[in-house]
Specification:
CATH topology of the largest domain: Rossmann fold
Shape: globular
Helix content: 55-70%
Keywords: ATP-binding, Chaperone, Nucleotide-binding, Repeat
CATH superfamily of the largest domain: P-loop containing nucleotide triphosphate hydrolases
Oligomer: single chain
InterPro entries: AAA+_ATPase (IPR003593), AAA_16 (IPR041664), ATPase_AAA_core (IPR003959), ATPase_T6SS_ClpV1 (IPR017729), Clp_ATPase_C (IPR019489), Clp_N_dom_sf (IPR036628), Clp_R_N (IPR004176), ClpA/B (IPR001270)
GO molecular function: ATP binding; ATP hydrolysis activity
Protein name: Type VI secretion system ATPase TssH
CATH class of the largest domain: Alpha Beta
Number of helices: 40
Radius of gyration: 39 Å
Organism: Oceanidesulfovibrio marinus
Length: 929
């Protein structure tokens, strides 16, 4: 039960029951018991035959004097010894709350009486049914008692008190008799929406891909008892759509003969309405006003001549809704009518809210039957989009290509995070269609941008002209360059305007021809003077001309294609368009060459890695396994972590798809809660786990378990299921799909250099296409031999069960040539960064590459040593030169601020031969005339 204000609950007792509670508390204290239990109250009630309780027992042939010994035996077994004031037991509080609901809603009473307590006791599931006293009271039929209640208690001492309470003026905020139905169903129309009427009007989109869930929903509604389904799933998976699909099916069956109807007979001629909890609460400022509105809606539903099913979306908002001091929330008002089966209800909520509110309230959760909605697959989402495509084509007046539907499902699943299919894919396709419709009727975005740039340039020129008129020094060369750029921008805008006009005419002609072809296809004899072949030929010519005019950057789009969808994804996520638009198969085929551009000196490892990923991407892996599980073994600083970063960017578009976990932080057994979330009852429950939440948001990810040998063995055992089945469940029981992810485990347990490694690595430099079959077979044999030599070392740190689930990828110590390649790569990146950020051209002498590589090799830390040498020896001197030149530009107004400077980094051997025997210097090069 929910938490209640005990004082306000006791105020609901009638005077007789208040005296009973005081007598029970006194008896509890005298017995030395710690809690006032239900048995204490029942014993006091059983001693008086004139109250509700005694008269009801007599009406069913029972006697309170037979019940008293049973209660005494239960109380005598309770522990004693309390010297303080007793407290009310939680079970008694729950029973009184249920009794108040029975009294106010079922009986229409303004106060709580003992007859209502007995009714609540007979309907409660939390009371110990094995108790002899409870077994004795179970002889009373609750259904018969509810039907004969007024007759049985008409002579009760509590009835006279109840009559006086009814006749007396009600205090402010006191609960009254349950409201009856309005004569015209006014409250039902005001606070609900008729979904069947919306379906008749065509306001509901068709529903696809949820036939199984809809069938389960209908099965539950067709039950005799517990016929209240609750749809549970993440936001956006289609819970409301399933209910709307039921409304559509109800409306479709209205005009069908009984033999052809798809719904069972108990759902014929039934209306489905949706409750708006927000409207119920809006303006309900007075105490009890919200409860009155809800009760009147329920009364209208029960009094309706047409059976009504109530749909409550976001059902968790009922918990606490209207729960002001002195009132009850909507959930407690619904419990009695749901328990009696007087109305059928469909609820919908998310997994998190269901576990947070419904599972913690046993009385509420047992009245609903869960129907779980999982996120659909990419293929199922594409099927849903195909079903919705005609509706969006009609609304937007555009054509949506089939490949655009596939692209919307795939790109939404891969790049749009934090949301779920099919909702995000539908929004993506809707936005793409709206963008095409806007391009047909509005100005192109590129032309608007060009005109904004022209206005910016004009303002810049006006500022320079104003400074010159005011006698301030102005760079005439910069002013002249600005005028030239303005003229070029104006010419570009005129060219864009002309191209826009031509594209618009061609697109309008294309749309007209497609409309003619559509009408001819629907009614071949309607347009007799039109030859379909001529129209088809003209259509082809129009398409060729349009492609020639548009090129790679169309200003006016005539259809939704994959490029349109990719552009929307790029703008939503900030991922560059080229990465969104690229072909996945081409990325996989070029993976090895792309990795070699970033990872130097590890051709053996990259060959093993790319072969396995190609096999997975081609569909040859286990259907339920992840894309790949790799154990990268090698010394520190040889490129293991950089390989995971590179794979993340190449395959999944960005480094944000990399989830890096340092397993040194998971050396304790209890730290598993950080990965999958804390279990119920522990701190942090409901907040999710680092691993499960990240994979739920980004199912297409690279997971890096850095320094895996440092993790606790039970932490690693969690990954066994992931590597086998591609799924993991978080602490809340929700399954997370890992089949589209790559897992990299790194370890440095093989730090000892392999004397045969250099020959293997150098032999891998040749392209596979140029190697002879014998050479390739020999290299495969050497790779297998190298992995076999690593096995004993790895087995000392990892269980065999984990090693059997991974592909071992050996990383070798970096050779001097590989170190020089890494230095060249990092210096090139540094030069690009300086040119883009500071407009500085950097040049490095050949000795710099050799010196940095030599110093990094001496440090013995591989590529990390290169970073350290650059950070300590090169960057400080380079930064000083850049800042010095920047300061000169700011102080000397005669120097052109936009001109690029050129700096050269050099090094010379130091006179004193030490480990770091190189001296670096930076000098400025004069620009050539």
């Amino acid at each position: 039960m929910l938490k209640v204000d005990l004082k306000r609950l006791l105020e609901r007792l009638n005077p007789y029951c208040m005296d009973v509670m005081q007598t029970a508390a006194t008896s509890t204290s005298a017995r030395g018991h710690y809690e006032v239990r239900i048995e204490h109250v029942l014993l006091v009630l059983a001693e008086d035959a004139a109250n509700d309780f005694g008269l009801i027992l007599a009406g069913f042939g029972l006697d309170g004097r037979e019940l008293a010994p049973l209660l005494e035996s239960t109380l005598s077994a309770l522990p004693g010894g309390s010297t303080g004031r007793p407290v009310m037991s939680p079970l008694l509080i729950d029973l009184l709350q249920e009794a108040w609901l029975v009294a106010s809603i079922e009986l229409g009473e303004s106060a709580l009486r003992s007859g209502a307590i007995l009714l609540a006791l007979l309907g409660s599931q939390s009371v110990d049914s094995s108790s002899p006293a409870v077994e004795y009271l179970r002889r009373v039929s609750r259904e018969q008692l509810a039907a004969r209640f007024e007759d049985l208690v008409s002579l009760s001492v509590e009835s006279a008190a109840a009559e006086r309470l009814r006749d007396a003026p009600a205090p402010a905020g006191a609960p009254g008799v349950i409201p009856g139905p309005s004569p015209t169903g006014e409250y039902l129309r005001r606070y609900t929406v008729d979904l069947c009427e919306k379906a008749r009007e065509g306001s509901i989109d068709p529903v696809f891909g949820r036939e199984e869930e809809l069938r389960r929903l209908i099965d539950i509604l067709a039950r005799r008892r517990k016929n209240n389904p609750i749809l549970v799933g993440d936001a956006g998976v289609g819970k409301t759509a399933v209910v709307e699909g039921l409304a559509l099916r109800m409306v479709e069956d209205e005009n069908q003969p009984p033999a052809e109807r798809r719904l069972p007979s108990m759902l014929w001629d039934v209306t489905l309405v949706a409750l708006d909890v927000g409207l119920l609460e809006a303006g309900a400022g007075l105490k009890g006003e919200f409860e009155d509105r809800l009760q009147r809606v329920l009364a209208d539903i029960q009094a309706s001549p047409t059976p009504i099913i109530l749909f409550i979306d976001e059902a968790h908002t009922l918990i606490g809704a209207g729960g002001r001091p002195g009132g009850s929330d909507a959930a407690n008002l619904l419990k009695p009518v749901l328990a009696r089966g007087e109305i059928r209800t469909i609820a919908a909520t998310t997994w998190r809210e269901y576990k947070r509110y419904f599972e913690r309230d046993a009385a509420l959760s047992r009245r609903f039957q869960p129907v779980v909605l999982d996120e659909p697959s990419v293929h199922a989402t594409a099927q849903i989009l195909r079903g919705l495509k005609p509706r969006y084509e009609e609304d937007h007046g555009v054509t949506i290509r089939e490949d655009a539907v596939e692209a919307a499902a795939q790109l939404a699943a891969r790049y749009i995070t934090g949301r779920f299919l099919p909702d995000k894919a539908v929004d993506l396709l809707d936005t793409a269609a709206a963008r095409v419709q806007l391009s047909l009727s509005g100005r192109p975005e590129l032309l608007d941008k060009e005109e904004r740039d022209i206005e910016d340039m004009r303002r810049e020129i006006e500022g320079l002209m104003r400074d010159r008129r005011g006698g301030l020094p102005v760079d005439e060369k910069a002013l002249h360059s600005a005028w030239a750029r303005l003229d070029a921008m104006k010419q570009e805008a005129r060219t864009l305007r002309e191209r826009w006009r031509r594209e618009k005419l061609l697109v309008e002609r294309l749309v007209t021809l497609r409309g003619v072809m559509s009408r001819v296809a629907r009614a071949p004899g309607l347009l007799r003077e039109t030859d379909p072949e001529d129209v088809r030929a003209e259509l082809a010519e129009c398409l060729v001309e349009l492609d020639r005019v548009q090129g790679d950057s169309p200003l006016v789009r005539h259809e939704v294609d994959p490029d349109t969808v990719a552009r929307v994804v790029s703008q939503w996520t900030g991922i560059p368009l080229g990465k969104v638009r690229r072909d996945e198969a081409a990325s996989v085929l070029g993976l090895k060459f792309a990795l070699r551009e970033r990872i130097r000196g590890q051709d053996t490892a990259l060959e093993i890695l790319t072969r396995a990923i190609r096999a997975s991407k081609s569909g040859l892996k286990e259907p339920d396994a992840p894309l790949g599980v790799f154990l990268l073994a090698g010394p520190s600083g040889v490129g293991k972590t950089e390989t995971a970063r590179a794979v993340s960017e190449i395959l999944f578009g960005e480094e944000a798809s990399l989830l890096a976990l340092s397993m040194s932080e998971y050396q304790e057994r209890h730290s598993v809660s950080r990965l999958i979330g804390s279990p119920p009852g522990y701190v942090g429950f409901g907040e999710g786990g680092v691993l499960t939440d990240a994979l739920r948001r980004r199912p297409y990810s690279v997971v890096l378990l850095d320094e895996a040998e440092k993790a606790h063995p039970e932490i690693l055992s969690i990954f066994h299921q992931i590597f086998d089945k591609g799924r993991v469940s978080d602490a809340e029981g929700r399954a997370v799909d890992c089949r589209h992810s790559l897992f990299f485990l790194t370890t440095t347990v093989s730090d000892q250099p392999d004397p045969d490694a250099d020959a293997l690595d150098n032999g891998a430099d040749a392209e596979p296409e140029r190697q002879s079959p014998d050479s390739a077979a020999s290299e495969d044999t050497e790779r297998r031999a190298l992995i076999e030599r690593l096995q004993p070392q790895l087995a000392e740190f990892f269980p065999q069960a984990l090693l059997a689930r991974t592909t071992i990828v050996p990383f070798l110590p970096l050779s001097p040539d590989a170190l020089q390649d890494i230095v060249s790569l990092k210096l090139t990146r540094l030069a690009i960064q300086a040119e883009e950020g500071k407009r500085m051209l950097l040049e490095f002498s050949p000795d710099v590459v050799h010196a940095v590589a030599h110093m990094a090799a001496i440090s013995g830390s591989g590529a990390r040593g290169v970073d350290n040498v650059l950070r300590v020896e090169v960057l400080p001197r380079l930064a000083e030169a850049i800042l010095r030149n920047t300061g000169h530009d700011q102080r000397d107004s005669s120097r052109e601020p936009r001109a690029q400077r050129m700096l050269r980094v050099e090094c010379t051997p130091d006179d004193a031969p030490t480990a770091l025997s190189w001296r670096f210097s930076v000098r400025e090069l004069l620009p050539e005339n």
